[in-house]
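[Meeting: bench + compute handoff]

Bench side (C.D.) handed over the final construct sequence. Compute side (W.E.) agreed to return the predicted structure before the next meeting so the bench team could plan truncations. Sequence as handed over:
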Amino acid sequence: MYKNFYKLQRNPFEITPDPSFLFPTARHNEALASLYYGVTAHRGFVVLTGEVGTGKTLILRSLLELLQRRNVAFALIFNPSLSPLEFMRYIAGDFGLPVAGKAKDELIHVLNDFLLQRHQKGLTSLLVVDEAHHLSPEVLEEIRLLTNLETSSQKLLQIVLAGQPELDQKLDSHELRQLKQRIALRCHLDALSLKEAREYMARRLQVSGAPATGEIFSDFAIEAVFRHSRGIPRLVNTICENALLSGYAKHAATITPEIIDGVAQDLRLGVSAAEAKNVEPKNNEPKNHDLKNTDPKNTDPKNNGGAQPSKEIEQADLLRAVRRLLEVHDRNPDAGTKDRLQ
């Protein structure tokens, strides 16, 4: 929708984990290198952790893209809320092995034969579990037993677990101390710094074909993006995507901090469920994303006389979203459904 207006060839801030958009910060480079080394050197068991939205899945996708060039066979589990038997069936099935009607011990036997055959050919096999902080203790125990599949010299199955910091807490538990001792490498992803966020946005715009001359996001807008996103890449993408849409609707050649603040308000960033119950209404519902409409004095209880019910807040948010869509439609009334979704 906004690509022609900003002279872009593709949407720069999609939240899908596309390896072509990988921005190599020092921490991301270190994490990717550690994972790649751990798998190719047959270290056995590697753990990647990071807060929500810091790029774990993107790192995994980039890793698998690199490993496919080395003929590494992998099983990828992205929904780990499985029973131990379901977990084993999923692994075997992803490796292309027959699983119908087989008990867990039969699955392990089939999997072991498959891994031995690949090992004898000098090939590597990998199990990747995303969202691993959701794994139950029973499934984590199954993973520990999978690390026992080995020859006298090396592990037959390389394992990568990726998850939020809660995964570290689980692995630190007394019950899983045997599994923790088998971890060969650990790496962690942090949020971006302001400098990294600036370079991250520039990288995505560059990959998307943004012209070398011209400024789509002002310096102050970038600082506003960082402030609202706290340097979390996924939130940077969400804010910037909505800001480009809003800027297009407003005929804004450059995204300003006022637009960023308005988008952050619409996305309710920084508002927790507990805070939402006590949100005070404004005297006048803002008609656009002007910074003056977000002045803290407008939410002073003395100015408005009482708390606004959460239902009314939702209705106000909906009205703002509808107004934005109407502005966009007025700009491009003949656009088809496909164009509106781009």
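W.E. noted at the follow-up: Confidence is low (pLDDT under 50) at residues 279-309, 332-342. C.D. will use this when planning the next construct.
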